[in-house]
Design a protein that fits this description.
Rossmann fold, ten-stranded antiparallel sheet, single chain, binds CIS-heme D hydroxychlorin gamma-spirolactone 17R, 18S, alpha/beta, six-stranded parallel sheet, 694 residues
């Protein structure tokens, strides 16, 4: 069997052998290129005819002895596997995690010891609620699952793009998911929370309040998976070589900052390009614009477990970053697309229980339940207990144990012995002590009576929901109110609507009143909780803003000013902006000074919602009236989605004819000698929320 470059820790202090390509090398032996080869059956018999089945007579029935026909159809009949029960819609890429700074004071995890250590990773992003074929840009929590192929075995960090969760105890997970999925009597709506059962669940399970605030915020309509944070959500433990433990929460911070779509745009993209987010990741990687995220942890000393006004084991709570800072220690770069989505992305099996020595669990009851669920679901989804042998799931280290048989066993375990303890194989495979690299569970002291109840320390559901609200800027607050009005406004049952506003008045009175007014129910009578604190780290306004990889649509016809356009496009490209030339038809357009530009998209093949900004050059076209109309549509849509729009000197008449107004993010070449740079700055800002769009 193929061996990774794994260290045998029995020889202590041996320098760790690291090979960041170990996973690629392992996968290489499974890659098959069919191009240029003869067509064969799965038994490797060459096929002479793949057009006609074998028949008794030219117009007669098909014969059973046509083994190629039987095999081909049978395989086809069985080529679907169950989609994931949640997180079905997802997409993944390979990459590498590089350690900046040793974490050995806190954890003995091998891949977190020596700065510079590179560990291969496989990362899958997903939507929670929708089916495999649903649209990418629906309002939903995004999954952010990372498999680290470490030299001590696989470590999975199976997180989300939101740091908290709807429920506190895993026993409620099937209820939550039943409520959010399409309603069973009519299977409507797909991939959406805007329906009765979801909001009925929320109003009757108030521990969800904090999560729902995040869910109604822009976080659930990310611009790109490359522009969202990731969170481990639960409290885990780091344990160092001396056995000292810290509570930790994991954070991924995207190099491009945290950015979102606007809701109207997200819905339109669902139709214009349902694969918007997977295309974004795929194309970025193909173009060498690798997705990057820094990894860090918040840490709390075990002695400080009870120092906070929330329970640190409650997955509906954050640890505000201003109180417990995030210590960044490494970076993940996603740099290779998969070869085959089914073989890799669909068959990958993540499990929060896949840990390595130095990383351990806590009593968070949500985490505890997940430790059961993932293998259980994978047993049915991947057809039995041998899914760890599927190439994407294999550790880069060899594994040895006495587990045997099961459906589709790949390995051939040799020898007579398959039990522990034994004398016939000298009691091997043998166990390892902690010093030899054996996983020894953290010896937490636990005592108490068996009980089905919730700790009082888990019962404050609204303080942090309000902390989140307090941390939002006015535009972000407006988006939350709009999202509530959209979502709850789609609920048919008026009583459920009323219950929702009666619940969310605890977060903010004005917010709940405005939602109540918007959805035609009574203003709630309750009071908001008394929390004045805020956490600036929660607002997306305080994020990194760079133009890199944002997409600009250049709207162009004949008769543009060549030098001007050339200079602007050059500057855009210099700053890493992706430029897409859009015109009346594909082919060339010509400038007044003879310069010609290749048009790669038309107003039909693209849409303003698929761009981050517009550069309106304008010009002339065969059907001038339609050309003018199309450009105005592009400008009007981008203007009301708060996007930057730059007008070349020939583009100004198109501005005058549109609904756009002079104001933030509207840039003119006619009155700015540094237009190209001003425009790049505007692109980096992404959205101009203070624009008056009405
Ligand atoms: Fe999951 N979750 N989950 N979950 N989860 C699954 O496992 C489950 C939870 C998350 O890209 C399933 O293999 C329970 C929190 C991601 O393949 C299933 C509970 C967080 C993915 C399952 C939770 C997650 C899953 C479905 C309540 C963020 C996709 C298919 C305690 C920290 C991984 C599968 C991928 C997938 C169970 C809650 C993240 C059914 C019981 C909290 C990113 O086992």
């Amino acid at each position: 069997m193929l061996r990774g470059d794994c260290v045998d820790k029995s020889s202590l202090n041996q320098k760790r052998v690291v090979d960041e390509n170990s996973k690629d090398k392992q996968l290489e032996q499974f890659r098959v290129n069919n191009e240029g080869k003869s067509l064969t059956t799965n038994q490797a018999v060459k096929i002479s005819n793949d057009e006609e089945s074998l028949k008794a007579g030219i117009r007669g029935p098909t014969l059973m002895e046509d083994f190629h026909f039987r095999e081909k159809i049978t395989h086809f009949d069985h080529e679907r596997i169950p989609e994931r029960v949640v997180h079905a819609r997802g997409y993944a890429a390979h990459g590498v995690f590089e350690l900046y700074e040793s974490m050995k004071d806190f954890t003995k995890a091998g891949f977190l010891q020596e700065p510079g250590t590179k560990t291969p990773v496989f990362t899958r992003f997903s939507n929670v609620a929708g089916s495999l074929g649903s649209a990418d840009t629906v309002r939903d929590v995004r999954g952010f699952a990372v498999k680290f192929y470490t030299q001590e075995g696989n470590y999975d960090l199976v997180g989300n793009n939101i740091p908290v969760f709807f429920i506190q105890d895993a026993v409620k997970f099937p209820d939550l998911i039943h409520a959010v999925k399409p309603e069973p009597h009519n299977e409507i709506p797909q991939a959406a929370t805007a329906h009765d059962t979801f909001w009925d669940f929320i109003a009757n399970n108030q521990e969800s309040a904090h999560m729902v605030m995040w869910q109604m915020s822009d976080r659930t309509i990310p611009r790109s998976w490359r522009m969202m944070e990731g969170f481990g959500v639960h409290t885990f433990r780091f344990v160092n070589e001396e056995g000292k433990a810290h509570f930790v929460k994991f954070h991924w911070k995207p190099a491009l900052g945290v950015h979102s779509l606007v809701w109207d745009e997200a819905q339109k993209i669902s139709g214009k390009d349902p694969d918007f987010q997977r295309r974004d990741l795929w194309e970025s990687i193909e173009h060498g614009n690798f997705a990057e995220y820094e990894l860090g942890v918040q840490m709390i000393d075990e002695a400080d477990e009870f120092m906070f006004d929330f329970d640190i084991l409650d997955a509906t709570k954050i640890w505000p970053e201003e109180i417990v800072p995030v210590k960044i220690f490494g970076k993940m770069t996603l740099n290779r697309n998969v070869d085959n989505v089914f073989a890799e992305t669909e068959q990958v099996a993540f499990h929060p229980g896949n840990v390595v020595p130095g990383i351990d669990f806590t009593n968070d009851p949500l985490l505890q339940g997940r430790l059961f669920s993932y293998i259980d679901t994978q047993l049915i989804r991947l057809g039995g207990p041998n899914f760890t042998e599927i190439p994407i799931n294999r550790a880069v280290c060899p594994f040895h144990n006495n587990q045997r048989n099961g459906y589709s066993r790949q390995r051939i375990d040799v020898g007579q012995v398959s039990y522990h303890k034994n004398s016939l194989a000298n009691n091997t495979p043998s166990t390892s002590t902690a010093k030899e690299g054996g996983f020894v569970h953290y010896a937490e002291k636990v005592e108490g009576r068996i009980i089905q109840a919730r700790s009082d320390s888990f019962k404050d559901h609204f303080s942090q929901a309000r902390l989140f609200w307090n941390s939002m800027t006015p535009p972000e607050k407006q988006h939350i109110i709009d999202a509530f009005i959209f979502e709850v406004g789609k609920v048919q049952n008026l009583n459920v609507r009323q219950q929702v506003v009666d619940m969310f008045v605890r977060v903010d009175k004005e917010m709940a009143d405005r939602v109540a007014d918007g959805i035609g129910v009574n203003r709630p009578t309750g009071e908001q909780v008394n929390v004045t604190a805020s956490s600036p780290a929660l607002s997306q306004e305080n994020t990194i803003k760079v133009p890199y990889t944002l997409k600009v649509g250049v709207l162009i016809g004949n008769g543009f000013t060549g030098a001007e356009v050339k200079k602007t496009v050059k500057t855009l490209r210099k700053y890493g902006v992706t430029v897409d030339i859009v015109g009346e038809k594909q082919g060339k357009v010509r400038g007044t000074d003879g310069l010609s530009v290749n048009v790669n998209d038309t107003f039909l093949t693209m849409d303003p919602v698929l761009f981050d900004a517009l550069y309106v050059v304008g010009g002339t076209a065969d059907n001038q009236a339609k050309f003018n109309f199309d450009i105005q549509y592009y400008i009007n849509e981008s203007f009301r989605h708060y996007k930057p729009i730059g007008f070349a000197s020939t583009g100004v008449p198109f501005f005058s004819a549109s609904n756009a107004k002079v104001g933030p993010g509207i840039v003119f070449a006619t009155n700015d000698s540094d237009f190209d740079k001003t425009f790049v700055k505007a692109i980096a800002t992404q959205r101009f929320w203070n624009r008056d769009i009405y």
